[in-house]
Amino acid sequence: MTDDGPAQRGYGRVLLKLGGEMFGGGAVGIDPEVVATVARQIGEIVADGVEVAIVIGGGNFFRGAELQQRGMDRARGDYMAMLGTVMNCLALQDFLEREHGIDTRVMTAITMGQVAEPYIPRRASRHMEKGRVVIFGAGTGMPYFSTDTTAAQRALEIGCEVVLMAKAVDGVYTADPKTTPDAKLFEHITHREVLERGLKVADATAFSLCMDNQMPILVFNLLEEGNIARAVGGEKIGTLVSTPAAEEL
């Protein structure tokens, strides 16, 4: 482990991963105050010319794995969760366009033409070049894959420089800070160390995908006002997860 890793820098094209639980404010459904806060922070970086894509989870509505524990078919539960992510996407789109005048496109992995465009990588990239915020819904469109993995895959496919993983904690810790008060925060850690230590930041598939393709992940606290702009601007916040060139596979 090393805490004095590579210096963070400003980014021009980013993939912001937002957890669905935060959209619900800890409850089922959507908390307009939380969505408004997130939209305001996104508006700040768009105004600075940053190209932004977003992946949102659906944990404030459904989780396929949890529904499976109650006897539901896992694949069907995952599809329900994918539809929940689309509701979050439309809510964020509304706040970005109505309150901030930011041109936004929702693109989904499951076709639903009346509310969103189908996900086409080149079209998504073109939207971003034109200054539009692109919000990806319905995960990968396949069961058994999390929205963390979706974020990694989309970031790689549309040429983002970093995955900004917004959480309700300050970054990656040696243990869960909620249950281990003396847990230490990493300033920098490699993808491999995250996987080997079994740190529960995101699912292993997402980290493996980023490790294999040298995609850095910046884990930071979304709940602190202005942190998205700080993360994009290269300020030293949260935990930078990256793989040194010597360790690339």
UniProtKB/TrEMBL annotation:
Reaction equation(s) it catalyzes: UMP + ATP = UDP + ADP
Keywords assigned by UniProt, alphabetized: ATP-binding, Cytoplasm, Kinase, Nucleotide-binding, Pyrimidine biosynthesis, Transferase
Residues given in the record as ATP binding sites: 17-20, 59, 63, 173, 176
Pathway membership, UniProt: Pyrimidine metabolism; CTP biosynthesis via de novo pathway; UDP from UMP (UMPK route): step 1/1
InterPro entries xref list: AceGlu_kinase-like_sf, Asp/Glu/Uridylate_kinase, Uridylate_kinase, Uridylate_kinase_bac
Any single Pfam family the record assigns to this protein: AA_kinase
Gene Ontology molecular function, alphabetical: ATP binding; UMP kinase activity
Annotated UMP binding sites: 58, 78, 140-147
GO biological process, one term: 'de novo' CTP biosynthetic process
Domain Aspartate/glutamate/uridylate kinase: 13-221
Enzyme class: transferase
One cellular-component annotation, GO: cytoplasm
EC number in record: 2.7.4.22
Subcellular location per the Swiss-Prot or TrEMBL entry: Cytoplasm
Stored Gene3D superfamilies: Acetylglutamate kinase-like (3.40.1160.10)
Family label: Belongs to the UMP kinase family.
Function: Catalyzes the reversible phosphorylation of UMP to UDP.
Assembly description: Homohexamer.
PANTHER family, sorted: URIDYLATE KINASE, URIDYLATE KINASE PUMPKIN, CHLOROPLASTIC
HAMAP family, per the entry: PyrH_B
Name of the protein described by the UniProt record: Uridylate kinase
Organism name: Saccharopolyspora rhizosphaerae
